[in-house]
Amino acid sequence: MIGSGGGPGQRAGYDWDVPRTTLVDRKATSEEVMSHAAALRQLTAGLGLSDPRLRGDGAVIVHSDETGYRAVTRLSAAASELVGTYVHVITDDVPGAADAREL
Asked: Among 22, 30, 70, 103, which residue's Cβ finds the most Cβ atoms within 10 Å?
């Protein structure tokens, strides 16, 4: 059970199921994301997402026709690996997506 504390030889808490983050982890800047724009556009299309845009704070905005956020989560993971730091990705159905520019 998640968070049950585990048994002998297992770590207590959630740490084996939750990605590790530290205080030094940070979100990518818009400049860092933009420097990988071509590759990010390819990743976006490959995951069935469209219309990639970039917000001033470095968040990537995409359009998704699928329900849920599986492809968006995959894009965030792949983009983070590419850029070298966390890339926040959201869909365009939220108010925070309105001021994004083309990626």
From this structure: 103
